[in-house]
Write a structure and sequence with these properties.
- By secondary structure, this protein is mainly beta.
- It is 4% helix and 46% strand.
- It contains one helix and 39 strands.
- The chain has a four-stranded mixed beta sheet, with no helix packed on it.
- Strand 38 and strand 39 form a beta hairpin.
- The two termini are 89 Å apart.
């Protein structure tokens, strides 16, 4: 709701603002604004005098005289040459500035403190330097310690030294000069490669060829870096080179029997060379093969260039002689020497029968001869046509017919139609065989297949008095469902009756069945309602006849008003045993409320906090309130805000103060401190000297 109100106010604001703007614009175009003039006061470094803004035909109000150390104010002039004194009785016709005229006060003498400071340390201080005197520094020349980045030279005092007009501290100012450092790059033998002179903060760089170090018999050397990183210069620094030492490498050759290079590799000094290429080979003949035996010399530690040649041993060759079956599966495999006659030594080969034929081993496809190469011999077989048994069975595996047919023959059933007796659940009719009859390719059994027809049974639902409520035909194995109105039984004076189910559990149908309705006797119940005094329902429940009702909810409550709290007492009327529907209402006792009354001082600090009953008049019994004076006022307690009234809720009363303007003693003294006049003058009032004009003897 608050958001809607804010949106409505914002909409009204946007609608009204343009109208208000154009209204003001119209009015401003008709009204002529008044002419205003500004009169400023230049006090020449004296005390400030505020400018005045005046309308036409007004006069400048003569301000309070300004002050300036060492000078006496002598009037306001219209120009800086002080030729025309301003008449404050003149009507203002334009904006202008008035200039104060000062006369030097030769009686004014005052000493000021002048200090000279270097980096927070006072080098010289004088506390009696007269106004207008130019101070002189007579100490040692200021110095400032060098840092790693800068050297410092004294330049001057800040601010510039000038005649004294107030206490002042001059601080030493220094010129900073960026420091330079030597950066040296050395070679491996410590000879200087490069020297640079760099300013603080500069990053060194090496601009000559990369340092080198001569190789030895065993090692080569490679420059990898300097001994430290290049960082901004903060001091003299020397960089030395770092080298990586690596063993020297030599070429080692490995040759085949025909001097073909097999491997040409670099190996480090002192290592035994390793041959990592393919194993050396030498072409076989039909009768012999050759095997790599080693190298012509023993492999030794590398000390220079070297070569090794492969050597081989010869052996009589053997060939693979395989005996395979008709399906090329391996029956026997052996290695047989060149020129030897192979022999098959395993069991006689066999070939699995097919659906159509049986097979018997005959011989090998080729005559076995001496070995001169890899050879394969394949088994051959004689074929014979196969016969199969065909059986026809009833549903219970009873053999109806059995016969033997050659592969490819078509079976037929030549006896009476198969029969199957009915069960409580089904009647049966022969339909076909479990698989379609086809040409014979294996022993096969055909089983009779019957179509089942589900049997129907009568199911009756009757009332307690055997009145038929529903009668239907239900399929075997189906759960009967009662679909009519729920069975009922007429109420009597003391009870009513609830339908609770059938006399037996309703089960899946396996035969004709009858189910009878059953009922539960239930005592009658009545609504008992408990109300609060405002009509709110506290509890509503059904309670049995002649039972004493109970209230089980939370203790009833009644919202307090400013004067009273309310305490629950009981329900009315008296709670009795149930004979009909009844309502009970909560009853309360009023208790007079109390409130906290707080008294705070002008700083909102609590000075008294007391509890008072509703309707009583609160009183402040604390300490008398005292408040510190200011230069302008003394303060006394005046009253409490708001006015104290009879208690009707929590309340805070704030003290209110009465200010009383203070007066001060103003003394006028002569040059020799003799008192000329002593008067009590109210704060903010300009004192007036009313005595005789002071005199000083010549």
């Amino acid at each position: 709701m608050k958001n809607k109100s804010k949106k409505l106010i914002k909409l009204l604001y946007l609608l009204v603002l343009p109208i208000l703007y154009f209204t003001i614009l119209q009015l401003s175009s008709c009204a002529v604004p008044p002419t205003r003039y500004t009169v400023s006061f230049d006090t020449d470094n004296g005390s400030l005098v505020s400018a005045q803004i005046l309308l036409e035909n007004e006069k400048v109000a003569e301000p309070k005289n300004p002050t300036k150390d060492g000078y006496i104010f002598s009037g306001w002039y219209t120009n800086t040459t002080y030729t025309t004194i301003y008449d404050f009785d003149t009507i203002v016709e334009h904006s202008f500035t008035l200039y104060s005229y000062w006369v030097y006060d030769d009686t004014f003498e005052r000493g000021y403190t002048v200090s000279f400071e270097v980096d927070g340390i006072i080098y010289q201080t004088s506390s009696d330097v007269l106004y207008g005197t130019t101070p002189v520094y007579s100490g040692v020349v200021p110095t400032k310690p060098s840092t790693s980045q800068y050297d410092y030279t004294f330049a001057s005092w800040v601010p510039s030294i000038k005649p004294v007009s107030s206490d002042i501290t001059y601080k030493a100012g220094f010129i900073s000069t960026l420091r330079s450092y030597t950066v040296t790059f050395l070679d491996a033998d410590s000879s200087v490669l490069q020297t640079d002179y760099l300013c603080y903060g500069s990053i060194p760089s090496y601009n000559l060829p990369v340092p080198t170090k001569p190789s030895t018999l065993i090692y080569d050397f490679t420059f990898i870096s300097w001994n430290q990183s290049f960082v901004a210069v903060t001091q003299d620094i020397t960089y030395t080179p770092i080298f990586n030492a690596s063993l020297r490498n030599y070429y080692i050759s490995f040759l085949n029997y025909n001097n073909q290079v097999l491997q040409y590799s670099l190996f480090p000094y002192g290592e035994i060379p390793v041959y990592t290429s393919i194993t050396p080979t030498m072409p076989s003949t039909d009768e012999y093969s050759y095997t790599f035996a080693g190298w012509d010399d023993e492999l030794t530690n590398v000390s220079g260039e070297a070569s090794y040649t492969a050597e081989f041993t010869s052996s009589k060759r053997k060939y693979n002689i395989d005996f395979v079956n008709d399906d090329l599966s391996l029956l026997q495999s052996s290695l047989v020497e060149y020129g030897t006659l192979p022999a098959y030594t395993n069991s006689t080969p066999i070939k699995d029968s097919s659906a159509q034929f049986d097979y018997t081993f005959d011989d090998w496809d080729n005559i076995i001869t001496l070995v001169f190469k890899d050879t394969t011999y394949k088994a051959t077989y004689i074929t014979e046509l196969r016969y199969y048994t065909v059986t026809f069975l009833n549903y219970d595996s009873e053999v109806l017919q059995s016969s033997i047919l050659p592969y490819g023959g078509l079976p037929s059933y030549d006896l009476s139609t198969p029969y199957k007796e009915s069960t409580p659940q089904y009647d049966y009719t022969f339909v076909s065989w479990d698989t379609p009859i086809k040409n014979v390719d294996s022993d096969i059994t055909y089983t009779a297949v019957f179509d089942s027809i589900l049997r129907q049974y009568t199911v009756i639902f009757e009332n307690y008095d055997h009145t038929i409520l529903q009668s239907s035909s239900v399929s075997y194995g189906t759960l009967p469902v009662y679909e009519n109105a729920s069975p009922t039984k007429t109420e009597d004076i003391e009870h009513y009756y609830d339908f609770v189910g059938w006399n037996t559990l309703v089960v899946l149908v396996t035969e004709d069945a009858t189910y009878t309705a059953t009922f539960e006797n239930v005592l009658r119940r009545y609504f008992i309602t408990f109300f609060n005094t405002n009509g709110e329902v506290l509890q509503d429940s059904l309670v049995e006849y002649n039972t004493l009702p109970t209230y089980d909810g939370e203790t009833p409550t009644l919202e307090s008003d400013p004067q009273y709290d309310y305490v629950f007492v009981c329900f009315t009327p008296e709670i009795l045993a149930v004979t009909e529907s009844t309502s009970y209402t909560a009853s309360y006792e009023p208790v007079l409320r109390s409130y906290t009354i707080t008294f705070v001082d002008v700083d909102l600090e609590i000075v008294q906090s007391t509890t008072f009953e509703y309707g009583t008049l609160p009183t402040y019994n604390g300490l008398t309130l005292l408040y510190p004076s200011t230069p302008e006022f003394d303060y006394v307690f005046e009253k409490w805000n708001p006015t104290i009234t009879n208690v009707s809720g929590e309340q805070t009363y704030e003290a209110s103060l009465l200010p009383i303007r203070r007066s001060y003693s103003i003394v006028f003294k002569n040059y020799d401190l003799t008192q000329l006049q002593n008067t009590e003058v109210e704060y903010g009032t300009l004192p007036v000297y009313q005595g005789e004009t002071p005199t000083k003897p010549s």
